[in-house]
Amino acid sequence: MARARKVFFRRRKVCKFCADKIDYIDYKDVKLLQQFIPERSKILPRRISGTCANHQRPLQQAIKRARHLALIPFTTD
Amino acid sequence: MRTYELMFVVDPRVPDEDVVTMTQEYKNMITAGGSQIAGEENWGRRKLAYPINKLNEGKYVLLYIASDNGKTALPEVEHRMRQNDKILRYLTVRTDEDLKRAARRQPAAGAGSPAAPAGAAEEREAPAPETAHQEEEA
């Protein structure tokens, strides 16, 4: 996975959902969603998490649904 | 054939028996409207991620609904839930399209093999595809 780039190593980012073959992102799966909400409870951008566009979209939807049901916070105060 | 998930959060001060009767009432409405209850989950008391109406906990109930002809009583059920101030939150999601798309992307694996590392996640994910199968048989 890790690919050498010039002198230093940079871990190559892989879409978690493609790698784990998760096709249906469930809003009830709090453990999974929590990996994509860092400290401030914002949705982790693709550029950081490496999630592909096809999976980021349902992920975003799932996080928003979970927020509505108070499974996941909107923000941390 | 359409499948839905209906999840709602009840005021924790409501006793468990009342939650059951309330749930039964909604289930009756749904079956009367021409759909089936494909499954039910009671998560019980759970901490809310943020306070709702100054409450820090809620009782979660989840219903899996299957409808053959596309007719459901869900709009009425939602209307009733909106007016019931014991219900803090509700959410109806139509799941058949997304599940079908997921199954198509992964035809061999289908329902039983999400290689997710999170153990609890697998348990929770399992009922949804199962309900899809049930209604296929029906």
Describe this structure as you would to a colleague.
The complex is a heterodimer of chains A (77) and B (138). Helices cover 39% and strands 5% of the residues of chain A. The longest helix of chain A is centred in the C-terminal third of the chain and has 16 residues, at 53-68. Chain A has 77 residues and is mainly α. A two-stranded antiparallel sheet of chain A has the order 1-2. The model of chain A has no long low-confidence stretch (mean pLDDT 87). In chain A, β1 and β2 form a beta hairpin. Chain A has a single domain (13-68), classed as Irregular (30s Ribosomal Protein S18). Chain B has a four-stranded antiparallel beta sheet with strand order 2-3-1-4, with helices on both faces. In chain B, a hairpin with a 2-residue loop joins β2 (36-52) and β3. Chain A binds chain B through residues 20-24, 26-29, 31-32, 58, 65, 67-75, and chain B through 7, 9, 48-50, 52, 58, 60, 62, 88-89, 91, 93, 98-99, 101-103, 105-106, 109, 114-118, 120-121, 124-125, 128.
Extract low-pLDDT stretches of chain B: 109-138
Using the 3D structure, state the CATH architecture of chain A.
Irregular
Number of strands of chain A: 2
Mean of residue pLDDT values of chain A? 87
Structural class assignment of chain B = alpha+beta
Class by alpha and beta content of chain A: mainly alpha
Low-confidence stretches of chain A: none
Largest sheet of chain B: 4 strands, antiparallel
Number of strands of chain B: 4
Q: Would you state the CATH class of chain B?
A: Alpha Beta
Tell me the domain tally of chain A.
1
Strand line-up of the largest beta sheet of chain A: 1-2
- Characterize the main sheet of chain A: 2 strands, antiparallel
Architecture of chain B, CATH level 2? 2-Layer Sandwich
The helix/strand series of chain A, from N terminus to C terminus, equals EEHHHH
Q: What is the string of helix and strand elements of chain B?
A: EHEEHEHHH
How many DSSP helices of chain B?
5
